[in-house]
Amino acid sequence: MAEKKVKQLRLVVTADDYDEALRFYRDVLGLPEEAAFSSEGGHVTILDAGRATLEITDRRHAEYIDDVEVGSRVAGHVRVAFEVADSAAVTAELHDAGAQVVAEPTVTPWNSLNARLDGPAGLHLTVFQNLGEEEGGESGA
Hints:
This protein has 141 residues and is an alpha+beta fold. It has a single domain (18-130), classed as Roll (2,3-Dihydroxybiphenyl 1,2-Dioxygenase, domain 1), CATH 3.10.180. It is built from three helices and six strands. It has a four-stranded mixed sheet, with helices on one face. Strands 1-2 form a two-stranded antiparallel sheet. A hairpin with a 3-residue loop joins strand 5 and strand 6 (123-130). The relative contact order is 0.17.
């Protein structure tokens, strides 16, 4: 197998309220801090979000996923999905920390429990919990 050209996927988010975004994603969601840098040019913190993938979808599939999880098209062209152990508990924690719940956890046809939220820094979020493997299941994160 050829050597991978890409070593890491890093999603860079510019937050109007840096401190609030850092509190939410690091302290509430629990993403460990990998590195932090400050200078007269500002602040940056790199959080470890576990394994990263880039999911490419066409508009029709994105509309289908929104319909299943929310009931209507709500996500923009980027949606950030986090796999968690307990999507109901994490949804409640994120809501208590200031995220707006767009859709409560819903069992999907691909056997996961997915919730939608609007979080700090303008990110539309999915928190999902795999309920078990299903033959021929598709990605719906």
